[in-house]
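Tip: read the tokens left to right.
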């Protein structure tokens, strides 16, 4: 990302008053660019959308989308790359700065997620989650455990939910039902699992609608039949935080409960009766 930042700091990028305002905006908020539009940037800096577009063109970007593509195609490293000095981390922890910085970033992520729930695409995604007869949920590697919990939570909201782990080597359960009655929720972030794109391609070929929950590094989901939620970036040191994904999934469950209303209450009561019958839970 450093080579992109340098473009916004050149004398050419800052030669006009509007250029300096946009230069300051992009250098301070480049991590937010994947979630912005030309109009939203224009509103934040107090300029016209045409001025923002012209500025980007002068820097060699035909559109904001070209900048987003360049950001996505940056190096995709492991989610865990602890290069900070352990001694430095301990010193910051002792000074109280390490965790306070984390809390500030978590609050900022929650604010961006709240904005996401007000986007026009949010309610159609919730509708698809609660109305599609067969809901299959797939994820991989370390985030698979978070997504499996999301899957279990969704079983309280509605029937027909299944977490697919691919252990059968075919994912055949995803393709057993009519495509029109099936929604595949595919959750994956950097570094992407090799099977993730393969499952996505197979679902697209079968005409199955996909809800892809991913990050801004993903550039292979461009089909019209794809619903997409992009997890806000949290630049927390050199290792990834699971909080943005967990919070996003929690918001989805809550929205689905509200959307289904009384049927979710009935479903939860049914599951509670089964829990009591099989005695797997302590009686409270």
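Filled-in amino acids:
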């Amino acid at each position: 990302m450093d080579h992109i930042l340098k473009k916004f700091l050149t004398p050419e990028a800052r030669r006009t008053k509007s250029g300096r305002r946009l230069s300051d905006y992009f250098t301070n908020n480049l991590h937010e660019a994947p979630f912005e539009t030309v109009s939203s940037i224009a509103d934040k800096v107090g300029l016209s959308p045409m001025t923002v577009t012209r500025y980007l063109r002068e820097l060699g970007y035909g559109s904001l989308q070209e900048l987003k593509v360049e950001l996505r195609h940056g190096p995709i490293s492991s989610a865990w790359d602890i290069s900070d000095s352990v001694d430095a981390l301990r010193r910051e922890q002792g000074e109280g700065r390490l965790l306070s910085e984390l809390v500030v970033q978590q609050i900022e992520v929650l604010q961006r997620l709240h904005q996401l729930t007000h986007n026009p695409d949010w309610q159609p995604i919730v509708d698809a989650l609660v109305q599609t007869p067969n809901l299959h949920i797939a994820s991989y590697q370390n985030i698979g455990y978070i997504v499996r919990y999301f899957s279990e939570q969704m079983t309280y909201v509605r029937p027909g939910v299944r977490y697919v782990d691919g252990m059968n080597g075919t994912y055949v359960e995803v393709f057993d039902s009519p495509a029109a009655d099936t929604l595949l929720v595919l959750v994956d972030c950097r570094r992407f699992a090799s099977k993730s794109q393969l499952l996505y391609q197979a679902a697209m070929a079968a005409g199955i609608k996909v809800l892809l929950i991913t990050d801004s590094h993903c550039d292979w989901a461009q089909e019209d039949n794809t619903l997409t939620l992009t997890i806000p970036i949290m630049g927390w040191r050199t290792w990834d935080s699971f909080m943005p994904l967990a919070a996003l999934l929690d918001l989805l469950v809550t929205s689905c409960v509200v959307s289904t209303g009384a049927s979710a209450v009935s479903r939860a009561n049914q599951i509670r009766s089964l829990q009591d019958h099989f005695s797997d839970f302590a009686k409270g």
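The radius of gyration is 22 Å. The longest helix spans residues 97-116.
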